[in-house]
Putative inositol transporter
Amino acid sequence: MVEGGIIKADKVEFTECWQTIWKTPYIMRLALSAGIGGLLFGYDTGVISGALLYIREDFDVVDRKTWLQETIVSMAVAGAIVGAAVGGWANDRFGRKMSILAADVLFFAGAIVMAVAPAPWVIILGRILVGFGVGMASMTSPLYISEASPARIRGALVSSNGLLITGGQFLSYLINLAFTHAPGTWRWMLGVAGLPAVVQFVLMLSLPESPRWLYRQNREDEARAVLEKIYPSDKVEEEMNALQSSVEAEKADLEALGSNIFQRVKQAVKNDVVRRGLYAGVTVQVVQQFVGINTVMYYSPTIVQLAGFASNKTALALSLITSGLNAVGSIISMMFVDRKGRRTLMIISLFGIITCLVALSIIFFQAAAHSPLVGRVESNSYGGNSTCSAYLREQHSSSWNCMDCLKATDCAFCTNSAGKYLPGACLASTEAVKDTLRAECRAHHGTWYTNGCPTKFGVVAILLLGAYIIAYSPGMGTVPWIVNSEIYPLRYRGIGGGIAAVANWVSNLLVSETFLTLTEHLGSAGTFLLFAGFSLIGLVAIYFVVPETKGLAFEEVEKMLQKGIRSKKRKGSADASSTKDQDTQ
């Protein structure tokens, strides 16, 4: 998973979950209705990758300005940072149900604004609105599911929200592919997100508020009524007592920490155990983003085009691979995270990520070095005014290849009709002549390239992209969220997890806002090599600052952190496990 939270659940819990919801379908109704927020989260963060290809075709200013493309993509992330912050406050002030309904309104409004957008700035406004919705959904949907689920199957049901996020991303690629030939293309792609928002809004109207929130508001009778629908009658009183104890403990913790958020953060940072937990928690969240995952999730079709597949439809179809593998990886993680351990799984994942990124860098370097040459005869055959002006001014134009042509301002490459690897034409791609020359190129049985160049290495690049996702998803994709659910003392878990989540979103924003600019200045090969370097730094950081928390109780994790992160981690884990064994005996 790329962003959002996940709660671990083992195989037994999933089995028990299935048996429980079969007997009490109302539980599944609660979980799936709230889980649509996760689906919308995934859809709205994934759909822009394909829609951007067609937005560029409709708005020449977007096609020419890299920063505008990055802004359209990343404004949803910027909105999510604000939405997550507001969502935390709204959850406590107005309740989980009202927060989900508010997120649906934002999702719907953003989808409609984008669908009818007459100019790029309106698309950006719509992206900010859906970003607010994404941020609120990322905070609220898992919380509602968690509080409205029986404790024994809570992990399995909350994990389903994570699967719905990756499922929503996969769905966005399918929808993108379905609308490639529809009039309005990107408008339908972005506008369709309004439908699930309406469905969830209607479903949530008939569902109750979270029993925990009701109890905190002294609405005990309403809380009991909800619990009676979730638990057998002989368990309701027991759950009410547990709820009372939990809420009272939470209120006591809040009183001890103070109501002022800045005061609470200050106390957390001063506490040695929490500070060391933050070193680990923030590190894994930042590394998760700086391995470059969201360059793939947000720009996958563009990367496919950089690998030599010029067709928008082909780029979208091949991008389904990455999204599908990401969803599968989330399931694999649930199976192995309690067997291999958190730290071990992340380190293995990073070794695979670094290998794939270095290999991708080599492939893209070779593709650039062996791209087809530009032929003066082919270029002039479209007419003197059609040839790229930079090519005409260049004294050493005989050495130009396709990549040199695309690096020039307002230029595109048209392949030779006799073969796409033969010398082709470097043509003007200004707003005045672009559409005409593209049509002429296709009429001459050529292919029009503006991102990447024809290459025999394209298939290898796609396979490596798939391998990168396989390496990322089961480890760095999901484990950072699990680490953050275990690394902090109970009293500081909310504030610690919140700081780490903000670090994740901000890192996400930095990566998504700079990727195209990096490829423009460093090339595809240089950009992937840069992310390989970040991944190597992340591997070293995780090795030194992240302890292993597999199989440890929260109290054992706290004792381990009291000794210091740089104490012998394995010894600390072994001592904790030994203590646990002695207690058992």
